[in-house]
Amino acid sequence: MSAVIHPGGHGAAHGHADHDHEHAHDHPHGWRRWLFATNHKDIGTLYLLFSFTMLMIGGVLALLIRAELFQPGLQFVNPELFNQFTTMHGLIMVFGAIMPAFVGFANWMIPLQIGAADMAFARMNNFSFWLMIPAALTLVSSFFMPGGAPAAGWTLYAPLTLQMGPSMDAGIFAMHVLGASSIMGSINIIVTILNMRAPGMTLMKMPMFVWTWLITAYLLIAVMPVLAGAITMTLTDRHFGTSFFNPAGGGDPIMYQHIFWFFGHPEVYIMILPAFGIVSQIIPAFARKPLFGYASMVYATASIAILSFIVWAHHMYTTGMPLTGQLFFMYATMLISVPTGVKVFNWLATMWRGSMTFETPMLWAVGFIFVFTMGGFTGLICAMAPIDINLQDTYYVVAHFHYVLVAGSLFAMFAGYYYWAPKWTGVMYSETRGRIHFWLSLLFFNITFFPMHFLGLAGMPRRYADYPMQFADFNAIASVGAFGFGFMQVYFFLFVVLPMMRGRGEKAPQRPWEAAEGLEWEVPSPAPFHTYEHPPRLNASATRVID
């Protein structure tokens, strides 16, 4: 759709009724609407539904892991199958659930927030979504291949990967396809943000969610080819006689770890920066104050992205690196906590003396700050080389990254869903159900992962299907919490998402949150199929539309 300013400079909230009947023929119906979707809202919805499906599959694998660990001894599965569960749980959650969910939010919200008619490359947008379906099917179907699914851990370390069956090749293929999808999505997001903002929206007036995604998209383009290189070298080692990671042929398995974590650590921030953006939108709305230190938030986000490239080997303190290397990565890792601390300080300062109310989106946002900060502190502890050498590959690390990823990424996504879904669906969610979902999820999450800190400090290794009796009590508690947390997400889908998708509930006003700022609140609820027939003009504060 052309991005020409209408001579009259129509406001976004006007002219929709006039245009709806003209554009009725533009709306594809039935299966064609979804298969050939080029509308950013439809593609955003597809991404979100896909990622929730993968969340459920990954969640079932997690519950199988926790069922096995409920008590000592082997209950249900042998150690090999247990390792397949841990590997596939990690791969499915990272590449199938968290990343696509944030791309779904980006597709839905970035054009709405910057006043763009759609994403820059609408057909490529469709293609980058549909690429994920065969990749996901390949990944999940690897369980049914000879020898079962890959069992090398989600990090796919050599030499284990060189010894796996054909499912390893299927996994590598799936990762390549998912990586290609990510890169296309990132190009689309960058071009959309840089070229299609409404007149008057300078870079430093963009919503924080748009900023965090712009930086995330650059990160994705930088590191996905690194992962592609690592798994391609694994593939050639397996089938074409190379010896990149095979010591018998002069290769080095530690080199794989360096390449993987050079991708893997920025990847961690790819999964958290959009969450920072969502929380930075929600807290000002419910504190009824502008975001404290907007510019410092932008610079902190960029600093995190840049520093994320120089901390990778803190995952590798036990590989025998020289002392100077350990010191460098230790200090670099501690340095990255500074911009992260700036963000937490700014969120707290935004809430300070604000007129706060705690509707469900705000509950999730505050819950996010609480649990993410706990995960951040355990990250600082793991950054210390002398301590980490003892904690390496124990349940302490499992506790740390689940506090950052489940409590970080997932809590922020729920916050974003409750915040924006009234705009997407045109109906309000049930506040009572939202609160039940929040409080029980928070409770079960902490019951699941907090005991893992103690297990790790006591020396329980991760990825083990069996363990000594001394670890039994905390494992039993964690398993009970995991099942509770899993059931709460099923509850969320059945009793919050489905009723909203069916349009059941109180009709959502155009501006469901009185103090929410941004262009997305200038369009009707639900947002029309074609949002901005003419780009909105912005006033000096870049919040309200000038008619």
TrEMBL record:
Keywords: Cell membrane, Copper, Electron transport, Heme, Iron, Membrane, Metal-binding, Respiratory chain, Translocase, Transmembrane, Transmembrane helix, Transport. The chain crosses the membrane at residues 46-67, 87-108, 129-152, 172-196, 208-235, 255-279, 291-315, 327-349, 361-387, 399-420, 436-456, 476-498. It catalyses: 4 Fe(II)-[cytochrome c] + O2 + 8 H(+)(in) = 4 Fe(III)-[cytochrome c] + 2 H2O + 4 H(+)(out). InterPro entries: Cyt_c_oxase-like_su1_dom, Cyt_c_oxase-like_su1_sf, Cyt_C_Oxase_1, Cyt_c_Oxase_su1_BS, Cyt_c_oxase_su1_dom, Cyt_c_oxidase_su1_bac. Residues 34-539 form the Cytochrome oxidase subunit I profile domain. Pfam families: COX1. Its EC number is 7.1.1.9. Belongs to the heme-copper respiratory oxidase family. This is Cytochrome c oxidase subunit 1. It comes from Sphaerotilus hippei.
